[in-house]
Amino acid sequence: MKLITHNMLTSKCLKGVRTGYPLAITATVVKVSEVDYKPEFISRIIPKLDWEVLLKAADSIGHNEGLPQTIDPKFEDNEEFLRKAHKVLLEVEVEEGYLTCPESGRQFPITKGIPNMLLTEAEVQ
After folding, report:
1. Whose CB among 6, 10, 40, 112 lies 3.0–4.6 Å from 21's, allowing a Cys bridge?
2. How far apart are CA 91 and CA 2, in angstroms?
3. Cα–Cα distance, 10 to 4 (Å, whole number)
């Protein structure tokens, strides 16, 4: 699971859960794979992210890559920033581990890079 995906996942479908965001990550296997750098894509996706959640997720798996605490308004012109964001969002991948709902504590396994967010009928609101 790439951190770009994690930034969008929620468990708000669980009974009794209002927000279910952000899910905590516990990683047992993390892989880094080179991906073609596309600054235009990174520039378009940055404003759509919850930056604070991305930083916390990256820290939790030991791959902060020196990202700043806040985003510079002119980040599109900062090549170093775009490359760091690219690496964290697209090259770092949680292969094994689990996600935890912040409200219910329900854990969702991550196996072979795929988070299993399936719920039983009894868990659905």
Report:
1. 10
2. 7
3. 13
* Residue whose structure tokens are 């759509």: 48
pLDDT tens for each residue of 25-82: 999 999 999 999 999 999 999 999 999 999 999 999 999 989 999 999 999 999 999 9
- pLDDT confidence of 95, banded at 50, 70, 90? very high
Residues forming beta bridges with residue 92, ordered by sequence position: 32
User: SS3 of 10, please?
Assistant: coil
Tokens for 109, please give them: 């396994």
- Residues whose CB falls within 8 Å of the CB of residue 95, separated by 6 or more in sequence, listed in order: 27, 29, 30, 31, 110, 112, 113
d(CA 107, CA 100): 4
Identify the three-state secondary structure at position 78. Answer: coil
pLDDT for 1 equals: 98
Tokens of 3: 């951190």
Taking CA 45 as the corner, what is the angle to CA 34 and CA 61, rounded to the nearest 5 degrees? 50
